[in-house]
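[job 4471] stage=fold_predict status=RUNNING
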Amino acid sequence: MLSTQELADSIGLQHDPRETIRVQTGIDVASADPNVFTIGEDLQVAQQPANVNCLPSISVSFSDGSPDESSGGSRSLADFSIIRILGEGGMAVVYLANQNALRREVAVKVPRDLGPAAVAGMLNEARCAGSLEHPNIVPVHALGSDSRGSPILVMKRIEGAPWRDLVNDPKHHAWSCGEFAGEEPLTVHLRILMQVATALHFAHSKGIAHRDVKLDNVMIGLFGEVYLTDWGLARRMASTVDPGLVGTPGYMAPEMVSRSSVDARTDVYLLGSTLHEVLTGQLRHHAPTTRAALAAASLSEPFQYPPSVPAELANLCNAATSREKANRPPTAVAFRQALAAFLQHRGSIALAASAERSLADLKEILQRETATSSVAAARMAECRFGFLEALREWEGNERARHGLDVTLAYMVERELSQRNPSSARALLAEMRSPSSELLERLRQLEADIAAQRESQNRLAHLLHDRDANVAVLPRAIAVGVILLLGVASVLSSLVRELNTNTPMPMTDMLTCDFVICVAMTLILSVWRRVLLANVYNRQVWLMFFCLAVGGTAIDSVSWLRGFPSSTSSLYNAILFAQIFMMGGVMLHRVFLWMALMCGVTVVIALVFPLLANASVAIDMILAACLYVGIAGSPNLPGAKDGQDKPGRTSAH
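[job 4471] inference complete, writing structure tokens
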């Protein structure tokens, strides 16, 4: 038995790797021309020569191209009339012929010579193809022998073009047929290959492997029909006979080079090789010589596809043409399903590719501008939309998922730089696996903002407590009512003092004190939540409480000690001046004016004791007018823009 290297050497260094080779041990290959003929066969022809004589006789006429109709349409002497050659191969010639009995055109295939290998190959192809009735396999009409003893294979005539013509010529007339019109070329090629895979799966179910799947062995009919042709190398997968070195070097699987057993996964490898040529325009084992092509087939190293080839198809090609059978799709139908999935997902893949281009532009923009720029923000939104649309069409699109994660990371960076933690967290939730760095930065930002918000809340609370505009109108009304009641009581006593020309009795002053204290108690009981809403209000009422209680205490002591009312008024004026001065310093400068008026009253009371009571009464009237007068001013100390206008109340 010859080694693989010896067989390769015997083929010749200049053999075209696209052409089928067929070498069988025990046959002299030294004198054969591999550029013209295929040599030998894996059938047991050396031990059991094919008996063509047992085949039915078929007559063929090469002299006329049409049936003889001279006698009313009677049958001509020949069963088939050859018209012209349709094609030629290394082993056989295919003619266009008329089947005179049925008056139809058929394809007639005859071997180039009557050597045992050629004859056995013809019989093998006829019996394999004839046993496979499938829409994507050319029907065999008859098998017989002619007068020379040469086998004749009669098949359906396929009007169309080899698939290679469509791959090589984007303007081929077949592209205009109804099945392909308007379709994107890659989509058409993948659909063709899917039908080839369907034919192979059917053949595998019958225990037959094709072993020579390639562009040249697929025919495309006028209406888009797809036929897998040339079953001359087909083999029963259960056969134990040495398969020999057969196949097309540019496509061959490693087990074909090593002459190991073949099975369905061998044809899957050939499907991958065919897809490779469709995608790249080159053979899977592209090499200048057959020997180099066979060496490449034996290694079957993964191919690095250019970016223009969809990653899903690139992965499928490398998987199908893996050196190890176990790494290939297990069946032809699994290969077909992978192609169908790609076509189904192709819209998603195209959207992802477009979004990836936008993402590349975004990276360039971010090198020139900050992430917060409007241009970068618009491109981020564009990328995100594109990747989301791709994932909406196909959730399993890893390219789109990866691109979306990268885009979201940029968007998170932008939100973090703009101190928008809620938006950043929402974007991180969309990411499949956000980086720990982004999560830590978000946590730190949230902690910083929480601390800042707490500080702002404390400041707002402090400002609210010192805001004089809180409950300003209710406070002014309440204070005005209390002061006016006090003024009314004092004025009534003064009128009586003037009429009787006697000093105001201390009982009248105590009565006035009692009226003021009762009024203050009632008002605070009813409006407590409003009038004591913040610190400022509580301090104001504390000041008036001190005035009322202090005045009552002075009047009570004066009454008990028997002091005249003028002396008590002097002491009250001194107390009021001190309390109003503290209020002016701590609360509002208006109280300084009240302190000044009380100071003037003290001077008057000291110089003119008889005018002490009247001066205190006038002080109370002026204080009431002054305080009520400023109640409508929006510019009280501590006021904040847009907060608690006069007349509004706020509880804190």
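[job 4471] summary: The first helix runs from residue 4 to 11.
[job 4471] exit 0
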